[in-house]
Specification:
- By secondary structure, the chain is of the alpha/beta class.
- It contains 14 helices and 16 strands.
- A 7-stranded parallel sheet has the order 1-2-3-4-5-6-7.
- The mean pLDDT is 84.
Length: 418
């Protein structure tokens, strides 16, 4: 599915983009974005812009896509925390150190790899996925065949530029402005010296380094075809297997099972709470997903991410189980580690957590409290490599309780429903 994403260097540009049908916008504020020459936003304006966009069904990405020095990392962490609090949907980064820092400081925020990262191969995309990124913006130098190949095989979302100026150098690798004028393009201050005239003799007034602007307006059908799924590339189908509500699980479960049967592919069953925990991939805190809060009980688990290879592996500390909220908080307190809570149980038990949690804690933003297809797919890929698959015919979701129809049937047969 194609998404139309528009840059917004000011509130006026953002309003125009939203009102003309953009699915998402991106903008920067502070000193760490590649468009420092734009008007950009203050912190208060950014929060207002997020509210404006979300009210109208438009997503918001924040650019933090320059190279940073070590002494600037604390300020970047504060920007990440402000973005999370404002409800930003994702942050674009260039610096791998910044990406790792954000995974630890604001694990709820999805990270997108900027085109400034010079990702131009499937291996580069896979590395970004291993580092916890959910999307990569490919370098603008790639051909249609290269883009198509990466789209068909990438484990995460792919973004490409459809319109705008082209640099004369590889994305993120130009030092021309820095060498000539001390204004680095990798610090958001490109003076665009490649747009100036260069030459000699009869060619003294030429512009040999200034490329024409890119425009893929006439190739949108080709881009759509690139993201259409090639069924031959599917190894298995990841599905949230529950526990969950009957209404929430049955449609997705039936669709995945039917697709698996039709294609002859196995399913990878991802437990609901583990899928929720994966939203906070790479955090050094304990992760405690809460769901189905009722009658002072909640379905919960506690997980942690441990380093493994170039990424992290999910390990269970407290297995998922229905549990009294105060008992759960006692167990977490006994573990003595900071914890992040997420899931639909968070707003229900916010006050109980405040009163009874004896360790430092954080509440994930609302955007992390629901299942994400990207998290289910990423964790499903891990479980597939571990051989955790089931035949499609054998799949049966785990429901937290029986459907109304099942209860009525049992009552008619003289049984007691649960």
């Amino acid at each position: 599915m194609l998404e139309l994403l528009a840059p917004a260097g000011s509130m006026e540009a953002l309003t125009a983009a939203v009102q003309n049908g953009a699915d998402a916008v991106y903008f920067g504020y502070g000193d760490f974005n590649a468009r420092r020459g734009a008007k950009n936003f203050t912190r208060e304006e950014a929060a207002s812009a997020v509210s404006y966009c979300h009210t109208r069904g438009c997503r918001v990405n924040l650019t933090l896509n320059t190279l940073l020095t070590d002494r600037e990392l604390p300020q970047a962490a504060r920007l990440g925390a402000q973005a999370s609090a404002a409800g930003v949907d994702a942050i674009l980064v260039q610096d791998l150190g910044v990406a790792r820092m954000l995974r630890q400081s604001v694990p709820d925020l999805p990270i997108h790899g900027s085109t400034q990262m010079t990702v131009h191969s499937l291996d580069g995309v896979k590395l970004c996925a291993d580092l916890g990124m959910t999307r990569v913006v490919l370098g603008r130098e790639l051909s249609r065949d290269q883009i198509a190949y990466i789209c068909q095989n990438a484990p995460i979302e792919i973004e490409v530029f459809g319109h705008g100026a082209l640099c004369m150098c590889w994305s993120g690798q130009c030092f021309f402005s820095s060498v000539i004028g001390g204004r680095s393009g990798n610090r958001g201050m490109c003076a665009q010296p490649c747009r100036l005239p260069y030459g000699w003799g009869d060619w003294a007034d030429g512009h040999p380094l200034s490329l024409k602007d890119m425009s893929l307006a006439g190739h949108l059908e080709e881009l759509r075809d690139m993201v259409e799924l090639d069924m031959d590339t599917i190894d298995a189908i990841a599905i949230a297997s529950g526990p969950g509500s009957f209404t929430g699980l049955r449609i997705g479960s039936a669709t995945a099972k039917g697709l698996g049967l039709a294609l002859g592919k196995p399913l990878v069953e991802v437990p609901t709470l583990e899928g929720l925990a994966w939203n906070l991939w790479g955090t050094d805190r304990l992760v405690c997903p809460l769901m189905d809060a009722r009658r002072n009980q909640v379905y919960a688990a506690a997980c942690e991410f441990l380093p493994e290879g170039e990424g992290f592996a999910l390990h269970t500390v407290i297995p998922q189980t229905p549990i009294d909220i105060e008992e759960l908080l006692e167990k977490l307190t006994a573990l003595g580690r900071p914890v992040t809570f997420l899931g639909d149980g968070v707003p229900v038990y916010r006050e109980a957590i405040r009163a009874h949690c004896g360790v430092p804690y954080a509440l994930a933003p609302a955007g992390s409290n629901r299942q994400r297809a990207a998290s289910i797919a990423a964790l499903g890929a891990v479980y597939f490599r571990q051989g955790r698959i089931v035949p499609a015919a054998a799949h049966s979701p785990v429901y937290l309780r029986k459907s109304q129809a099942e209860r009525e049937r049992e009552e008619a047969d003289g049984h007691t429903g649960t």
